[in-house]
Amino acid sequence: MQHAVGAPLPPPHGPGHGPAGGPHHAPHPGSAAPPPPPIPPAPSAPPQHLSQGWAVPGPDQQPPPPSREVTGHFRLPPGGLVPLPAQPVEPGTGTATLAVLLIGPAGAGKTTVANLWAARRRAPTAHVSLDDVREWVRSGFADPQTGWNDQSEAQYRLARRTCGFAARNFLANGISCILDDAVFPDRPVIGLGGWKRHVGPGLLPVVLLPGLEIVLERNAARTGNRRLSDEEVARIHGRMAGWYGSGLPIIDNSTYDVETTARVLDEVLARALASPPSW
Predict the structure, then answer these.
(1) In terms of CB atoms within 10 Å, which of 36, 88, 157, 220 comes out highest?
(2) Could you give the residue ranges of the DSSP H alpha helices within 135-278?
(3) Distance CA 36, CA 23 (A)
């Protein structure tokens, strides 16, 4: 009798047991006793390779721990060492891999323009918005509109470091990155200095600064905590005027639609690649 794989072995022969474990019957006189069935060998250790040829770790083998130096398939460069990309040989920024910081007051259209510029490029490009990253905090979110304090300041700094890490990660994987933030010229250590530390000296800053009436009109169309009071918008816009004379490229998009602004941004960045601004 055959037994299914994994089924209990038949009981051994002995007094009072037949071949299948039933009552024992003596053999007929003069006939030879049938030989006992062979005892199956004890199960051996599980095979170390599957039939498809895939290796199976032994009981004393452990998979190597993942390296902490690798994100995805690419090793990240040291922080703050993103070099300036080579100048493209075609109009605009072409397929150059570059990091851009789009600066401007609330209502300047930074997020909308950055989204379109990133989407229209021929090279893989990501857009990282500081406000979007800052609002990843749900419980415990420190809304600056309810009063600026140490907690809201800390969340802004944390969001900037997170954006900087994301930008370096994209660049290490051959993907350009554009970030947008309302950086003030009168706070160089936190503003441009902070972004330079987070991303690197190859970061290309561009200021988007339409007229005050345009900014007020766009801000009025906002909802939620992105909408500011007219007084706050005017105060921020006045501080942003300090970028004039800074040496950074400035785009006044008061009369431009989004597509035109994105095209002008690409032209300005191409000139910045040819002659990087000093900042």
Answers:
(1) 88
(2) 150-172, 192-198, 212-220, 230-240, 258-274
(3) 16
Q: Taking the model in full, what pTM does it have?
A: 0.65
All domains in the chain, ordered by first residue: 100-274 (3.40.50.300)
Span 114-139, pLDDT tens digits: 999 999 999 999 999 999 999 999 99
pLDDT score, position 21: 43
Q: Which residues contact 101 (CB under 8 A, 6 or more apart)?
A: 178, 179, 180, 181, 183, 192, 195, 199, 203, 204, 205, 206
The answer to whether the CB of 227 falls within 8 A of the CB of 123 is no
Is 207 within 8 Å of 196 (Cβ atoms)? no
Angle (CA) 187-191-197 rounded to 5° is: 130
In this predicted model, what pLDDT tens digit does every residue of 53-90 receive, in sequence order? 444 445 555 555 545 444 445 554 444 444 455 544 45
Rounded Cα distance, 180 and 9, in Å? 73
What is the tens place of the pLDDT at every residue in 191-202? 788 898 889 888
DSSP 226: G
Distance CA 171, CA 166 (A): 9
110: left (phi over 0), alpha (psi -120 to 50) or beta: alpha
- E strands within the chain? 70-71, 74-75, 99-103, 125-129, 176-181, 204-208, 250-251
Q: What is the dihedral angle through the alpha carbons of 181, 184, 187, 189, rounded to the nearest 10 degrees?
A: 30
